[in-house]
C-alpha cells in the first residue's frame, strides 16, 4: 500500500507538529502493524507523506548464516576479488574463519590531481555509478569469488556506500571545469549534482548544508559529510536504485552488507531500503530458504553527540566503537586489566545479540579525529594488538567478531592506497604474455582460446556489457580525460610460516599464528554453554578465566611483573599445549608435538603459570611503520617486531583440543623419584616406564632449567675468559722479560765496544 498526499494545507501547516505526527502514527498502527511511515522534515525535498507496506514482512537481518563451528569475519581491506577467492579456498575456509568483508564494489572515483596522493584508499568510498566495476575487479570476477568462498564455507559481506555519491576533490572538480571520472569510465559533475550513469540529478540529493553541529541529528543526517553529495533516501526513486544494486549483489551470492556511514542516514530510511532487498540466493548457494541478508551498520557512537547506536539496532547489527575504544584503553595500560571482569553491556556496550565487535578498523587506522582521544590499537602496536584480539576472541561478549587485515602505509601519509604493481611488474607480465603468444606462433590459436576478433581500430572489439570512457558532449567545455588506475598488487606468502611476506606490502593480521590458533580454539566453544567462569586476578594487570570446562586463558599486561601463580584452570588433569606460543603441530608421525609451551594441570585442575612481562618497550605510541620504508623489514614487519627476542605476547591459552593425552610419549616428563612418578602418572595417565624416551617438563621446571643452563653458560664463559686473561697476562710477562734481557745484552755490547 502506498499513499501520497501532496501540496495540501494540512501537509504544509501541520506535518512537522509532534501532535500531528503522533496522530498519524496511531492511525497507521490501526490500519496495519506492518505499515511504515517515512517523513522527511525540512531537507528541501518534496513535501510528501509516504505510507508504505512492504511486499514481504520485515524479517531478521541479524542472522549471519555462518556455517557451524566457524568464527569471525575478516576484513580483507582493498584485496582483489581473485585474491579473496584464493584466500577463501586456501586459508580462511581451512582455518575456520566464517566470513569475509570486502571493500565497496561499485564503480568509484579515480583521483587525478597533482596535490593529492594518487589512488587514495577513500576512492573506493566515492561511488560514481552502481556498476560492479572497481579496482578489485568486475562483476564476473565478483561472482566467481562468491562461488568459491561460499563453497569453502566462507560468507561474503559487501561494504556498501549508500549515504552519498562522489564529491569534488579539488578546485577544478568543485567548479565543474573538470568532470569526475570513474574506474569504468563513467563521468559526473559534482558541482551540479549530475550523475548521468545512474540518473541522479539535483532533486535526488538533500539541499547543500555544512555538517557543522553533531549535537543536531537533523544536521548530521541531512547535511553533506565532507561536502559529498548527500542522497535523499526519503525519495522512493533513490531507494529503488540502491535496492536494485543490493539485489544484484544478493543474486550474485553476497550474504549480507556492511552499511558504511550509517550514522549519517535516518534509521527509518535504512529500514525501508532493506525491506525491498530480496532473500538470499538459496538456489545457487547453500543459504537457507527465505534467509534475509545479514546487515551490520557502521555507527560511530561514544556517547558524545546526538546519534545513538541503539537507534539502529532493531533491524540489524551495529558496530560498537565504544567496545574497541575501551579495550584499547585497557590494553594500553590506562585502565587496570582487572576491570575486564565487568566486560559487556555494563560497560555501556550494546546488548550481546546486537553487537559486532572489533579491535581495529580501516577508518580508525587513518582518521585520528574519528574517536577523539580514544585511539584504537592496530598492527602498529603488534604485541598489544595480539593481546587485544586474543581477549576479544576468548570472551563470549559480542555475537560477531571482526578481524582487520591491513596493508602497510606511512603514518605521515594516511591517504595512501593499497600496494600497487610497479612498472617493472607490469612490464614482466607483458613480456610473459608476448612470449606466450610467440610460442603459439603466427596465425595459430592456443588451445582453449577463441578465434581472434576482427581488428577494430587496433584494439579489441568491446564485449557486451563493457563500456569505455564516456564521451563528452560536443558543446561541453570540460575535461573528461580518464586516468588509468594501476592494478592492486597481490599478496605473497612465506612458505615456511604462512604469513604474508613483508615485501608484498600486506600486513595480513588474520594470518598471524596466535590469531589463527585462537580462531581454531573458539570454534570449539559455545557462546551459550561455555560462559566465563572462575575469573581470577593476581594483581591489577594479571587476569585468568575459564570458558566453561573447555578452555582456560591467562593475560599479563604488567610492564614489570611476571604472572607467577598457581591457578584454577577448570580443565581435567593432563599436559596441555599453549596455542598462543605455537600449539600442537603435525610432525609427519604424530599430531601431538607441542610447538608452544606445555602446561601441566594436576588432578585438582590447577596449574602453575609463569607468564613474563613483555610490554615494557611498547608504550602508547606506535612501534611499527611510523616512518614506513619497504626496504626496512626489521623495523616495519609488524609480526616480526611482535615476536622480537622473547617470543612472548602476554597471553596463554589452552583448551581440550590442545591436550596431549594419549600421545604423551612424544612430550617431555621429568620423573625424579617415586613420588614424582606417581604425580606424573596421575597427570598424564602414563607410568615412568612409558616416559623413558622424553621428559615431561612443567613450565616452572623449564624456567628453572633455562636459568640454570644460562647461569652455567655464563660461569663457563667467565671461566674461559679468566683463563684467557691469565694466559694473556703470562704471555705479556714473558714478552716483557725477553725485552729486558735483550736490553741488558745490548748495553753489555756497547760497554765492551767502548773498552
UniProtKB/TrEMBL annotation:
Reactions accelerated catalytically: Endohydrolysis of (1->4)-alpha-D-glucosidic linkages in polysaccharides containing three or more (1->4)-alpha-linked D-glucose units
Which segments carry the region annotation Disordered? 414-490, 664-755
Keywords annotated in UniProt = Calcium, Carbohydrate metabolism, Chloride, Disulfide bond, Glycosidase, Hydrolase, Metal-binding, Signal
Q: A GO BP term, please?
A: carbohydrate metabolic process
**Signal sequence annotation:** 1-38
Question: Per the database record, which ranges form the Alpha-amylase C-terminal domain?
Answer: 533-630
| Quaternary structure, from the entry | Monomer.
Q: Per its record, how is this protein called by name?
A: Alpha-amylase
Amino acid at each position: 500500500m502506498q499513499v501520497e498526499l501532496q501540496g495540501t494545507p494540512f501537509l504544509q501547516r501541520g506535518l512537522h507538529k509532534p501532535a500531528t505526527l503522533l496522530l498519524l502514527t496511531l492511525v497507521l498502527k490501526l490500519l496495519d502493524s506492518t505499515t511504515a511511515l517515512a517523513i522527511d522534515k525540512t531537507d528541501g525535498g518534496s513535501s510528501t507523506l509516504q505510507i508504505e507496506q512492504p511486499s514481504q514482512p520485515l524479517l531478521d537481518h541479524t542472522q549471519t548464516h555462518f556455517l557451524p563451528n566457524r568464527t569471525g569475519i575478516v576484513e580483507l581491506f582493498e584485496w582483489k576479488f581473485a585474491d579473496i577467492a584464493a584466500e577463501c579456498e586456501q586459508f580462511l575456509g581451512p582455518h575456520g574463519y566464517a566470513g569475509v568483508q570486502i571493500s565497496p564494489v561499485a564503480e568509484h572515483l579515480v583521483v587525478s590531481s597533482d596535490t593529492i596522493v594518487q589512488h587514495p584508499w577513500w576512492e573506493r568510498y566515492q561511488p560514481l555509478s552502481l556498476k560492479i566495476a572497481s579496482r578489485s575487479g568486475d562483476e564476473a570476477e565478483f561472482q566467481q569469488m562468491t562461488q568459491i568462498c561460499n563453497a569453502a564455507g566462507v560468507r561474503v559481506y559487501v561494504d556498501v556506500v549508500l549515504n552519498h555519491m562522489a564529491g569534488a576533490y579539488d578546485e577544478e572538480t568543485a567548479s565543474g571545469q573538470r568532470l569526475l571520472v570513474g574506474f569504468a569510465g563513467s563521468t559526473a559533475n559534482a558541482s551540479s549534482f549530475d550523475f548521468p550513469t545512474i540518473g541522479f540529478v539535483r532533486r535526488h540529493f538533500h539541499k547543500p548544508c555544512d555538517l557543522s553541529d553533531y549535537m543536531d541529528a537533523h544536521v548530521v543526517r541531512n547535511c553533506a559529510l565532507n561536502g559529498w553529495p548527500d542522497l535523499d533516501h526519503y525519495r522512493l526513486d533513490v531507494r529503488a536504485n540502491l535496492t536494485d544494486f543490493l539485489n544484484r549483489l544478493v543474486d550474485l551470492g553476497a550474504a549480507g552488507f556492511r552499511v558504511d556511514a550509517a550514522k549519517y542516514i535516518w534509521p527509518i530510511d535504512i529500514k525501508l531500503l532493506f525491506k525491498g532487498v530480496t532473500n538470499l540466493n538459496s538456489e545457487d548457494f547453500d543459504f537457507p530458504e527465505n534467509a534475509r541478508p545479514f546487515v551490520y551498520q557502521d555507527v560511530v557512537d561514544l556517547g558524545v553527540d546526538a546519534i545513538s547506536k541503539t537507534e539502529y539496532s532493531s533491524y540489524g547489527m551495529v558496530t560498537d566503537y565504544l567496545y574497541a575504544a575501551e579495550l584499547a584503553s585497557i590494553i594500553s595500560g590506562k585502565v587496570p586489566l582487572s576491570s575486564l571482569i565487568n566486560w559487556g553491556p555494563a560497560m555501556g556496550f550494546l546488548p550481546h545479540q546486537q553487537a559486532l565487535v572489533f579491535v581495529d578498523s580501516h577508518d580508525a587506522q587513518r582518521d585520528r579525529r574519528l574517536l577523539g582521544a580514544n585511539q584504537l590499537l592496530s598492527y602498529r602496536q603488534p604485541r598489544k594488538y595480539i593481546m587485544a584480539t586474543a581477549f576479544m576472541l576468548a570472551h563470549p561478549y559480542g555475537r560477531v567478531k571482526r578481524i582487520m587485515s591491513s596493508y602497510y602505509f606511512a603514518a605521515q601519509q594516511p591517504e595512501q592506497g593499497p600496494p600497487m604493481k610497479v612498472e617493472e611488474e607490469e612490464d614482466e607480465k607483458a613480456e610473459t604474455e608476448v612470449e606466450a603468444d610467440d610460442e603459439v606462433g603466427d596465425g595459430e590459436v592456443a588451445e582453449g582460446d577463441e578465434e581472434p576478433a576482427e581488428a577494430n581500430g587496433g584494439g579489441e572489439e568491446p564485449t557486451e556489457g563493457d563500456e569505455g570512457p564516456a564521451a563528452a558532449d560536443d558543446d561541453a567545455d570540460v575535461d573528461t580525460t580518464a586516468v588509468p588506475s594501476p592494478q592492486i598488487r597481490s599478496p605473497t606468502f612465506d612458505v615456511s610460516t604462512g604469513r604474508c611476506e613483508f615485501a608484498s606490502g600486506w600486513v595480513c593480521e588474520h594470518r598471524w599464528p596466535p590469531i589463527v590458533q585462537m580462531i581454531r580454539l573458539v570454534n570449539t566453544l559455545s557462546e551459550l554453554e561455555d560462559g566465563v567462569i572462575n575469573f581470577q586476578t593476581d594483581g591489577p594487570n594479571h587476569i585468568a578465566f575459564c570458558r566453561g570446562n573447555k578452555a582456560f586463558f591467562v593475560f599479563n599486561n604488567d610492564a614489570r611483573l611476571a604472572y607467577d601463580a598457581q591457578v584454577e584452570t577448570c580443565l581435567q588433569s593432563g599436559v596441555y599445549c599453549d596455542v598462543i606460543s605455537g600449539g600442537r603441530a603435525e610432525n609427519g608421525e604424530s599430531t601431538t608435538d607441542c610447538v608452544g609451551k606445555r602446561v601441566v594441570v594436576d588432578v585438582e585442575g590447577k596449574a602453575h603459570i609463569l607468564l613474563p612481562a613483555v610490554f615494557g618497550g611498547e608504550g602508547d605510541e606506535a612501534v611499527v611503520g611510523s616512518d614506513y620504508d619497504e626496504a626496512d623489514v626489521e623495523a616495519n614487519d609488524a609480526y616480526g617486531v611482535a615476536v622480537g627476542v622473547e617470543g612472548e605476547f602476554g597471553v596463554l591459552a589452552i583448551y581440550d583440543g590442545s591436550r596431549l593425552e594419549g600421545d604423551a610419549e612424544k612430550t617431555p616428563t621429568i620423573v625424579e623419584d617415586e613420588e614424582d612418578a606417581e604425580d606424573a602418572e596421575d597427570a598424564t595417565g602414563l607410568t615412568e616406564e612409558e616416559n623413558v624416551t622424553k621428559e615431561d617438563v612443567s613450565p616452572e621446571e623449564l624456567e628453572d632449567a633455562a636459568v640454570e643452563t644460562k647461569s652455567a653458560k655464563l660461569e663457563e664463559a667467565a671461566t674461559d675468559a679468566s683463563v684467557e686473561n691469565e694466559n694473556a697476562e703470562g704471555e705479556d710477562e714473558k714478552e716483557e722479560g725477553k725485552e729486558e734481557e735483550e736490553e741488558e745484552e745490548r748495553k753489555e755490547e756497547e760497554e765492551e765496544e767502548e773498552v
